[in-house]
């Protein structure tokens, strides 16, 4: 034996079907095979080991005014309990992250409270100090609101074109919320869908693509239908993401919760569109959650007063892994969409399950699903639209070789912030 390990995960099932011990030290996998002598051994018989997921669209809330919906403790614990080891926080906080000072405050809050790795994006508006945010460590820019949504006002096309030019010069990634909203009475899921149609997502994407600066890396957020996803595929080099709520929920099938709970932007669409989106599974580059927690009190108001957004960081991988266990989708395709492509787009490392790669891992029961219920989830939101559906939840989640979650117990590791490539430490840091 050449080197000792801090932890050996014994008798793990690997995605290819092999059973092996995974030895961890210094935050990385150091060996896969017969276990190295280790300070701590954990019997993982019966558990499938997957790389930790990278969820590139999460609203962690917190700050001074939104902690009652979610904060970094509850949001990051929810991530870990759903097999997500890295979240990318969206900057439509209150106030939004338009300055380097606000950004540094957000990093300090997350560094104190987060249990999973995190990147934080910068907010794009006419007032944003984009270069300052990049140097403060923004991982990317967006979601950028080309149409108004919860906690985000629409940025004008001229402001967007100027921002695109600065972002392209920095060689950074911009992520885009595209919709075209028709004014009208927003009284039901059907009305909400009518007022925010998928055709509007497409026109907005085309309007923005016409303003892209040369060399801009752009990513379209939460596309909700084949119409908009196909339009994104016609706008290379842009990429796009699809959310679990557009794959699992529809106007007709919105679970056991009242309609307002499933109000989200872009909206859940009709059942035929949801099914057609599944038909495009292989062409979808990224699945992300758009975890956007609001409380039961907020979601149970009259439909027009309900804020848009659905919590989902904890249920994203479990819902999809249950579909793998059912034989509907391939495990490799799931890993591409929730681990490798988002990591690649963000320029960050994900675990390959090979020696030398980060020990960001989640261990799931084999072939066993459980019934999802809000009572066992960890988000402060306290509800889920997926109540009663089947999911596969991890029993153990490891971040940088640290056992951060094991059978409902959490432990906080150090060094979880992932700054972007433009990061320059300030003199006070
Ligand atoms: O439904 C949504 N909620 N869509 C967004 O774009 C923002 C999000 C939120 O922050 O609540």
From TrEMBL:
Highest taxon of the lineage: Archaea
Keyword Ribonucleoprotein (UniProt): no
SUPFAM superfamilies membership: Composite domain of metallo-dependent hydrolases, Metallo-dependent hydrolases
Transmembrane segments: none
Cofactor: Zn(2+)
One GO location term (cellular component): cytoplasm
Gene3D superfamilies per record: Metal-dependent hydrolases, Urease, subunit C, domain 1
Keywords, comma-separated and alphabetical: Hydrolase, Metal-binding
Keyword Metal-binding (UniProt): yes
InterPro entries: Amidohydro-rel, DHOase/Allantoinase_Hydrolase, Dihydroorotase_CS, Metal-dep_hydrolase_composite, Metal_Hydrolase
GO MF term set: allantoinase activity; metal ion binding
Domain Amidohydrolase-related: 50-364
Biological process according to GO: purine nucleobase catabolic process
Protein name: Amidohydrolase family protein
Organism: Methanogenium marinum
Highest classification ranks of the organism: Archaea, Methanobacteriati, Methanobacteriota, Stenosarchaea group, Methanomicrobia
